[in-house]
Specification:
By secondary structure, the chain is mainly alpha-helical. The protein contains six helices and three strands; from the N terminus they run ααβααββαα.
């Protein structure tokens, strides 16, 4: 049996699994979408701020730079983004949404709204606000712990 400190992370992991599965199903059923849920993490970050460097995208997506780099190449092949070299620092790569990439936002928003209605079915507005506040606190705790781990000498 799991103790109190274990079940939250386990449930979040299961929720993430089912959320991703449903998101992919709804994207496929829509027929207009040319990306999947994993790629949606990157696109979503770019819809909020376009363009961005690869190093800016990594923490926003939660993807390791190696995974992110592979996914960016795929998104570029799909015509959703372009990868450009930063003129002021040749080591940096800039990720820019294409018109196709920008146009996918409407589809992503519609699918997210549909999924959100399922996600919060039976919840009051007060419960939703409290739940999301708890999640933000957990995220803050995890980000702080992650930064401490990164700062430790190896």
């Amino acid at each position: 049996m799991m103790n109190t400190y274990e079940i939250g992370g386990y449930l979040v992991s299961k929720i993430q699994h089912y959320n991703g599965r449903l998101f992919n199903r709804y994207l496929t059923e829509d027929g207009r979408a040319v990306y999947n849920a994993e790629q949606g993490k990157i696109l979503s970050a770019l819809w909020e701020q376009n363009p961005q460097t690869v190093s800016m995208l990594a923490p926003k997506t939660g993807l390791a730079k190696s995974s992110l780099t592979l996914m960016l190449k795929k998104l570029e092949q799909q015509g959703l983004i372009t990868l450009e070299q930063d003129e002021s620092d040749k080591r940096k790569r800039i990720v820019v949404l294409t018109t196709l990439g920008k146009n996918q936002q409407l589809i992503g928003d519609e699918v997210s709204e549909k999924l959100g209605r399922i996600f919060y079915q039976g919840f009051s507005e007060t419960e939703i606000a409290a739940f999301e506040a708890y999640l933000k606190r957990i995220e803050t705790n995890l980000v702080a712990a992650s930064r401490k781990e990164e700062e430790k000498p190896k």
